[in-house]
Amino acid sequence: WERGFTKVINVQGSDHHGTIARVRAGLQAVGLGIPAGYPDYVLHKMVTVMRGGQEVKISKRAGSYVTLRDLIDWTSRDAVRF
């Protein structure tokens, strides 16, 4: 907030949905003039990616992942969007 950003988006897994109200309340409590409802949140969930009828194994530790571009290339923009 002190650095002048007026838009912040906090991206978290859906299992952290309970922290939204607490973080926002804490920001209000410190009295720095931070507006109510700040920051914005985007919650995400894990999905199972299938390719050729087989599950694609994802491992952060092993560095195996699927990018959004991969998903679009394998399917379509509409399939990824919805």
UniProtKB/TrEMBL annotation:
InterPro entries: Rossmann-like_a/b/a_fold
Gene3D superfamilies in the cross-refs: HUPs
Domain of life: Bacteria
Descriptive protein name: Arginine--tRNA ligase
Organism: Lactococcus formosensis
